Batch of 4 targets.
Target 1
Amino acid sequence: MSFRLHKGETFSLVGESGCGKTTAASLILLLNEPTSGEVRFENMSLTGLSVAERKAYTRQVQAVFQDPYGALNPRMRVGSIIGEPMEVHGYSRTERQQRILEAIKAVELLDGSEKKFPHEFSGGQRQRIGIARALTMDPTLIVLDEPVSNLDVSIRSQILNLLKDLQDERGISYLLISHDMASVEYMSHHIGVMYLGRLVEVGESEDVTHRPLHPYTATLVAAATPPGRTPAWQLPIIGEVPSPLNMPTGCAFHTRCPYAMDICREVRPVLTEVDGQRQVACHLYPDHVDSIDKDLTESKI
């Protein structure tokens, strides 16, 4: 897989559980080493970093995790949780205290929150604590791993709005990991759709969510959008996701695709530019998609 995340923007990786979204995030966070290829950050390769370079990188790249309950140490007060990254990086006690209070204010928690324990907060408030912890390092990039999936629906919009406001104020870039197309559409500038470890479509948010090119993307959009927004040529996919340990030959999606052709079973499609900034890995393009559009139009008539 290959994609670019631009400064001050949100790039979202979407797809079903197990497709590789979190693995990609763990490579960017240096929690795992790539077996091939490389990850670059501001033209610097993240392979073979020295201790000093690694420490400097982790100041600029922070994370907000999926589970607001499991991500916070229940035995530490909120102030200590938020200030722990700064302590690791050698900030003075005075500077830590100042930044902790600034971060608490930035995520709209009440004064005095730093003196409490995590169990005294709701799930949405705990996620705000996680965001505050990431902000203290003044990062360039924050990896958001399913940041609202464990929250009540009524709270999700509040957290997403907070993240957008912080991005506008501070120019932070986000890598958003999610399977919720509604949240992704609201947050993203660009979207990458993953299936079994590979990108199958990449493009600007509005293009991907309003005019998907890949059959799998169309399925995700149809499942998350109201009637009337369903892609015109989308048909239900069939079957279950194949095991990553026993990948199908050719296109990994051909076992579930209603438009699969002989070539799909034999040759794996590569991600190629189709429509301006759009990229798609599908044998329907550029030669076969017009005939599908024509057939669907005639069937509606």
Note: The longest strand covers residues 198-204.
Target 2
Amino acid sequence: MRTMLELSLSATPKAAPELRRELRAYDYDIRLCATELLTNVIDHVGDGTPVTVRVTAAAGDADRTRIEVRDPNTRTLPVIRAATETQEYGRGLTLVAALAERWGVDLGPDGKTVWCELAPASSC
């Protein structure tokens, strides 16, 4: 995989706009998915959690973009939830799943990586 961007940051609400600025050269879907994965860490693992965000060309397919968000928590795993019309939260992973060709979680002894792979914008 060819790394196009790698950032180490603290998962805080102000990190989301910072991440969007760093990804300004990428299309909207990539910015949205990366931000939603980061926001999940803030909401479900904890404000201030150290994360690494990596954007790469997907293995075996340079046309697809892979987004990875790594955090040190192995106990809190992402789950798609059904949000009601009036809820202001609970749609992030649903958006990622809808936009990505595939997504998943890789567990390691010292953390997890939540990732998704997106097709080129022209074929979405």
Note: The helical segments are 15-22, 28-44, 92-99.
Target 3
Amino acid sequence: MPLRPEYTLHQSDLTEFLCAPLWEEENGSPLSVLSALARLGIDPWAEAARLAALPRGAAASALAVILRRLPAQQPEAPDALAAADRLVKLLPEGGSATAPNGEVVDRSRRTGIVNPWFFLLLMAALIAWGMNSFLS
């Protein structure tokens, strides 16, 4: 039986952002963006996809607000806005090809680009219709 999506490792264009370290915790382990979002009760992939769809400045501001909600575990924790500016550079520009549930989305549908097979089929139909009209 396959694992439910929330229990699988998502392979997406958001992985680099989600695995990026925010800072080192008191026990010496790095705190990743994914762990930080999960600690706050935020779906990491949904939030990363939302941030990726925003302009860089807006994404950095939104992420900084979220990071400020984290309890500071050490006095030298980085400034939330500086950390957010560094992290949003890891997001894919123009949005993510990954849906919040981890499935890869057809980017051509999301961006409004029409599949080339559609044009080929349309041209064939128009030629057939034109030939039929011409022969009648």
Note: The chain has one domain: 5-105.
Target 4
Amino acid sequence: MPRSTTPYDGEFSQYFAARVHSLRSTAYLLCGDWHRAEDITQAALLRLYLAWPRLSRRDALDAYARRVVVRTFLAENRRLWRWRERLVGEHVETAVPPATAERDHEQRMLLRSALAAVPPRQRAVLVLRYWDDLSVEETAAALRCSPGTVKSQTARGLATLRQRLGPYLDALSLAGEERR
């Protein structure tokens, strides 16, 4: 039996092909696991597909899709919070590798580990603000909260990152300046 198509399928397929990687990257930064990021992205894109005929503002699709990804992540965390392991303990010990590529990889892993220690809502704010480069107002719209909430969640999330990174913070700052 052939699959029925809607007049919107081609348009959605083009949007999907153009944005799936960006949405998956955002989901990965939120959850820290590529498999889970794939699941979050698929669930978000399914919701977007189902809402597609009702979406009148095609110019705001990216903001809407990003909001669906973040809300899917937050909803999943609310459901699974009992069963997830909490990161406890000291900072991750890493040796300084000789090669720049290896050092960059370790720094990214260290940052991802520290980001995973940030509570989900604060992590969502940090990812939207610093990875997706959204303004305070755009982040507030994506999360359906006030700009003041975005500012306070940003401050708390950054404080958690600084605390988690501890002695590695200076090394990360210096490495970023070396690349400029």
Note: The chain has two domains: 1-84, 91-180.
